[in-house]
Design goal:
The protein has six helices and two strands, in the order H-H-H-H-E-E-H-H. It has a two-stranded antiparallel sheet with strand order 1-2. The radius of gyration is 18 Å and the shape is globular. The mean pLDDT is about 95.
C-alpha cells in the first residue's frame, strides 16, 4: 500500500471511529469541542475558538451562547480589547467535559475489550505514538 492509499484508509477509518462514538455523547459536538479547547488552551475569545475549530464566528458564537446559558462557560472582559470577552471553563463545565470524556472512553474501551485480543491491544497501543506524531506534524503545517 502506498502513502496515499494508507492516508486515505487512515482518514476513512478514523472518521468512522469518530462517528461510531457519537452515540455516547450527550451534548452537541460543537459545544463539547468548545469545552475541550478551553480546557486545553485556557481562556479564549469566541474568535479564537472559531479559528482553532475551523468554523465560522457565528457557529462558535452559537455554541458559546448555549454553554454560557448552561453555566458551563463564563465570560469576562478582555484585558486589552474592550470589544471582546475572554471565555473561561467553569467548574461545572470541567465536570461536564470530564463526564463526556469518560463516556466516550468507556464506549471505546468496551469495544476494545470485546473485539481485540491482547496482541491486538498491544499493536493498537504501539500505533498511538505514531498517530500523535502525525497529528502534531499536521497541526504544525
Amino acid at each position: 500500500m502506498d502513502e496515499d492509499e494508507l492516508a486515505e484508509q487512515l482518514r476513512m477509518t478514523v472518521g468512522e471511529l469518530v462517528r461510531a462514538v457519537r452515540p455516547a455523547d450527550t451534548m452537541p459536538p460543537g459545544e463539547a469541542a468548545v469545552l475541550g479547547y478551553l480546557d486545553r488552551g485556557g481562556p479564549l475569545t469566541t474568535a479564537d475558538l472559531a479559528q482553532q475549530r475551523g468554523v465560522s464566528h457565528q457557529s462558535a458564537a452559537k455554541a458559546v451562547k448555549e454553554l454560557l446559558g448552561q453555566g458551563l462557560v463564563r465570560a469576562e472582559d478582555h484585558p486589552s480589547d474592550g470589544r471582546k470577552f475572554l471565555l473561561h471553563l467553569t467548574a461545572a463545565g470541567s465536570r461536564r467535559l470530564a463526564e463526556e470524556r469518560r463516556r466516550r472512553a468507556a464506549w471505546i474501551g468496551g469495544a476494545i475489550g470485546d473485539v481485540l485480543d491482547a496482541a491486538e491491544r498491544e499493536t493498537l497501543a504501539a500505533a498511538l505514538p505514531l498517530l500523535s506524531r502525525l497529528t502534531a506534524h499536521l497541526k504544525g503545517q
